[in-house]
Design brief:
The protein is of the alpha+beta class. The protein is 26% helix and 22% strand. Helix 8 packs across helix 9. The chain starts with a helix and ends in a 37-residue tail after the last helix.
């Protein structure tokens, strides 16, 4: 009965995250500044938000052959995604079951078997332990019980995601279901990576990156280039687990060379509907992933926490092979992709300048929580989830040190009422 009650409560919390049930009593307030700097809050976020969430690793085309593997490191874990001899893609903890040695180094490689460099234990690409030197020396060893520890995996339109723990959050396919018809024509499953994985450290809390990504009000203020090419077409909306932003290229030629070049030379893509030909489409998936979709390519980005006040951006870009480009347009498509990069390089610089200064402001004792507008639907959606999973986020100022020892639990157990705790003791 206890397990059933726990599961019912967990499902209730997931429903609250999705906006079902009673309205958020703090909906008109942003998340408070202290949770962008507090070590105890950061630890709870790792436990309740990041570890149970899906994270992109690669595209299936990155590991086309048996033994091909890719890795992702986050939350103190290393995960390896590998294509088995049977063609199936699986994910495992990159940890030998003997003495916890890392099995593979680097971001990518190919291994017929995983051989531990410490004591030469051998694992098949399906995770089975099949080789142990001096096997008779281990009285308690059962090969069948000591294969590589599996990690949950999902392949969505060719993109490979992993999840360290299951807290009931929806699959990537379920999160993106409201926009399945919109993304289907882009043929994601047939794409290939066109740039190496890039890791970019940032001196900001991970939430600052996501807040800025989904923020609509700063576009006309801080991004002159996007304003020139979008005009007034930029729009946002929030579904339960995904934010959608879009801007359509205007016909008025920009005064900026690369913007004007992109506007003038973007080839028509035959398999895309008319409305997608000149649309820049952005999706942010819960809690820390985004992909930017253009007619010419797609960029993935995730922001992984590395400390309470730092994170790393993990980026990669994909496109359809040249055979999908109209004959004679291959060179022009490559030039357009370069123009795209030049435009967005400036946007990224502008965003980095902004979020670094927001992070600095979050450290100020003068800042509690700010009012949030009705139009800021994406920020409201994200804040509701964080407050549901970690109710102390309703406090406008930080509780005293050690607060997390008695913290209200998120998905899993009941939480005390702190709805009247806008001011916490300092």
């Amino acid at each position: 009965m206890a397990d059933l009650a726990l599961e019912e409560h967990r499902q209730s919390r997931i429903a609250q995250c999705a906006g079902e049930g009673a309205p958020d009593p703090d909906a008109d307030w942003s998340l408070p500044g202290w949770i962008y700097t507090d070590p105890e809050f950061a630890d709870l976020e790792i436990e309740r938000v990041i570890r149970p969430s899906w994270q992109i690793v690669c595209h299936a085309s990155d590991i086309p052959n048996p033994g091909d593997w890719r890795t992702i490191d986050y939350c103190g874990e290393s995960v390896v995604v590998v294509r088995g001899d049977d063609g199936v893609i699986r994910a495992f903890h990159n940890v030998c079951r003997h003495r916890a040695m890392r099995l593979v180094e680097g971001e990518a490689g190919c291994s017929r078997k995983f051989i531990c460099a410490y004591h030469a234990w051998a694992y098949e690409t399906d995770g089975r332990l099949t080789g142990v030197p001096m096997k008779r020396d281990y009285p308690a060893l059962r090969l069948e019980d000591n294969g590589l520890a599996p990690v949950a995996l999902e392949v969505w339109h060719g993109f490979v995601f992993v999840r360290l723990e299951d807290a009931g959050f929806p699959s990537v396919a379920a999160m993106m279901a409201p926009y399945e018809a919109e993304v289907a024509p882009y043929r994601f499953a047939e794409m290939e990576r066109i740039s190496d994985v890039r890791l970019r450290p940032r001196s900001v809390n991970w939430k600052n990156v996501g807040d800025n990504y989904s923020d609509n009000l700063h576009i006309p203020v801080a991004h002159d280039g996007l304003t020139r090419i979008f005009g007034k077409s930029y729009e946002i909306e929030a579904q339960p687990w995904v934010d959608r932003m879009k801007g359509d290229l205007v016909d008025q030629p920009s005064a900026h060379f690369w913007e004007r070049f992109y506007q003038a030379h973007l080839p028509r893509v035959p398999h895309l509907p008319e409305g997608a030909q000149r649309r820049w489409l952005y999706y942010k998936l819960w809690p820390n992933m985004a992909f930017d979709i253009y007619a010419d390519q797609i960029d993935f980005m995730q922001w992984l926490p590395t400390s309470p006040t730092t994170c790393v951006l993990r980026e990669m870009a994909f496109a359809l092979p040249d055979r999908y480009t109209p004959p004679g347009e291959e060179r022009r498509m490559k030039l357009v992709r370069y123009a795209n990069w030049r435009i967005n390089r400036v946007v990224n610089q502008e965003d980095t300048w902004l979020i670094e200064r927001v992070q600095q402001g979050m450290h100020s004792a003068s800042y509690g929580a700010g009012p949030i507008g009705r139009s800021e639907v994406c920020l409201r959606s994200f804040a509701r989830k964080i407050r549901t999973l970690i109710p102390e986020a309703r406090l406008h100022h930080a509780p005293g040190a050690g607060w997390s020892r008695n913290a209200a639990l998120g998905v899993g157990e009941a939480t005390p009422d702190i709805s009247n705790g806008k001011e916490a003791p300092r």
